[in-house]
TrEMBL record:
Name used for this protein in its record: Mercuric reductase
Gene3D superfamilies the UniProt entry points to: 3.30.390.30, FAD/NAD(P)-binding domain (3.50.50.60)
Spans traversing the lipid bilayer: none
Residue positions binding FAD: 58, 140-142, 310
Pyridine nucleotide-disulphide oxidoreductase dimerisation domain boundaries: 346-456
FAD/NAD(P)-binding domain sequence ranges: 11-321
Record key words, sorted: Disulfide bond, FAD, Flavoprotein, NAD, NADP, Nucleotide-binding, Oxidoreductase, Redox-active center
């Protein structure tokens, strides 16, 4: 595109450079479709995962896992610098993935709908560019929620997970608001680098979507790593001290308390990023939470407009966004049969040390569905036939599986153990393809490995 081009026509317009959008754009551009990709920030080519999500967090976690107890501010600074270099490299590669394709044009700037078939993009180098598309895909992701706690938004030291990843000063005292997946992952990581970490969770338990025994075991792991966890905590206010620090006032049933904080990490959930798109001009409906309403084929209320990734209100995982691209691609060039209803046994991992991975139903959810079940739950330290955990000196955690008592179908599993982020995929594959608990129990696995835990774990079903 030249500087004089102020209007573009495209077969496909993608708003947001995330996993689903960029993969769809590259695939169709290689097939000869004219594609325009719009990304609001040059720091986000490639999307959340490689820039502010999965990749940088896991890189920082990996560099923290074998540190001796104590504060490691220099190691932390080095890790932040190395992570920034990694994300910069990946960002450049992702930009080139589309920019080198003749049929693709990348515009950097804010996109706003003009009507159902066109958007305006405010670019820094070309001014306002109008883009019309035969098909439009919105993949603008999500952003952190900042609640209306008195003084919180005015405090100089609050940070979201995105902002924490680029701060190279290790906070001496970190207060984490929220005991969900993001909050716990960051709490564990910063404790490993030596921060004094306190987690404030308003519910009675952390990780509320997990079974109580699994959440309790995760809490034990966290507290053993030095993280203080306060549940049933109601945050009353935040007072900025004027020196870059603040105090967090909260109360529990035990009474009021005040915590000094060098940094406050707000990890109270994420909301779809739709506010600036002017979706009403395009006739695109949103939910009460601000997510774009889609059907099982990811079509919005306008059949030629699709929404992929976090912005459609589905599970906030990169690999789900990747699968979203497959569904849209099938709508545009395939049979149109693929849909979100095809998804079964989608696993996820919370990268504590050791990581917590789960797939399928919890015991609680299975009982709420009225199922007759068998369960097995074992501490890793008690599993004599799993020497791999002892070899790598990672015996913390537990493994749990939920099975249909009548059919022997695997309903779900929670693995809080070394290498669980790899092992959980075996369980998910078995669930998708109808492999029974007995069959998984009696398989032959490499030794010593964490996967062979299924021999013992599934043998303990009752």
């Amino acid at each position: 595109m030249t500087a004089a081009d102020t209007h573009l026509d495209a077969d496909l317009v993608v708003i947001g450079y995330g996993k689903g959008g960029k993969t769809l754009a590259a695939t169709l551009a290689r097939q000869g479709w004219s594609v325009v990709m719009v990304e609001r920030s040059p720091m986000m080519y490639g999307g959340t995962c490689i820039n502010t999500g999965c990749v940088p967090t896991k890189a920082l976690i990996a560099r923290s896992e074998h540190l001796a107890p104590g504060a490691h501010p220099q190691h932390y600074r080095d890790a932040v610098a190395a992570t920034a270099q990694l994300t910069s490299t990946l960002r450049a590669a992702n930009f080139a993935m589309l920019d080198t394709l003749d049929a693709a044009t990348v515009l950097t700037g804010e996109a706003v709908f003009r009507d159902a078939h066109s958007i305006e993009v405010q670019t820094a180098d070309r001014g306002t560019v109008t883009v019309s598309g035969r098909h439009i895909v919105v993949g603008t992701g999500s952003h952190a929620v900042i609640p209306d706690v008195p003084g919180l938004r005015d405090a100089a030291n609050i940070a979201t997970s995105t902002e924490m990843l680029v701060q190279d000063r290790l906070p001496d005292r970190l207060v984490v608001l929220g005991g969900g997946y993001i909050g716990m992952e960051f709490a564990a990581m910063y404790a490993a680098y030596g921060s004094q970490v306190t987690v404030l969770e308003r519910h009675a338990d952390i990780l509320g979507q997990e079974d109580a025994d699994v959440a309790d075991c995760a809490r034990e792991v966290m507290e053993a790593a030095g993280v203080r966890i306060v549940t049933s905590a109601v945050i009353d206010r935040v007072d900025d001290q004027g020196d870059g620090t603040s105090t967090v006032a909260f109360h529990t049933e035990a009474g009021p308390e005040t915590l000094p904080a060098d940094t406050i990490l707000v990890a109270l959930g994420r909301t779809p990023a739709t506010e600036s798109l002017a979706l009403d001009r395009a006739g695109v409906k949103v939910t009460a939470r601000g997510a774009i309403s889609v059907d099982e084929h990811l079509r919005t209320s306008q059949p030629h407009i699709f929404a992929v990734g976090d912005v459609n209100g589905g599970p906030q995982f990169t690999y789900v966004s990747l699968d979203d691209h497959r569904i849209v691609l099938d709508q545009l060039t395939g049979t149109g049969a693929r849909s979100t209803t095809d998804r079964t046994a989608v696993p996820y991992t919370l990268f504590l040390t050791p990581p917590l991975s789960r797939v399928g139903l919890t015991e609680r959810a299975a009982l709420e569905e009225g199922r007759s079940i068998k369960t097995a739950a074992m501490r890793v330290a008690d599993m004599a036939t799993v020497p791999r955990a002892r070899i790598v000196e990672e015996t913390a955690g537990m493994m749990k599986v939920v099975v249909d008592a009548a059919t022997d179908e695997i309903l779900g599993a929670a693995l809080l153990s070394y290498d669980s982020h790899e092992v959980i995929n075996t369980v998910a594959l078995a669930m998708r393809h109808g492999i029974t608990a007995s069959a998984l129990r009696d398989e032959i696995y490499t030794h010593p490995s964490m996967t062979e835990a299924f021999n013992q774990l599934l043998g303990a079903l009752h």
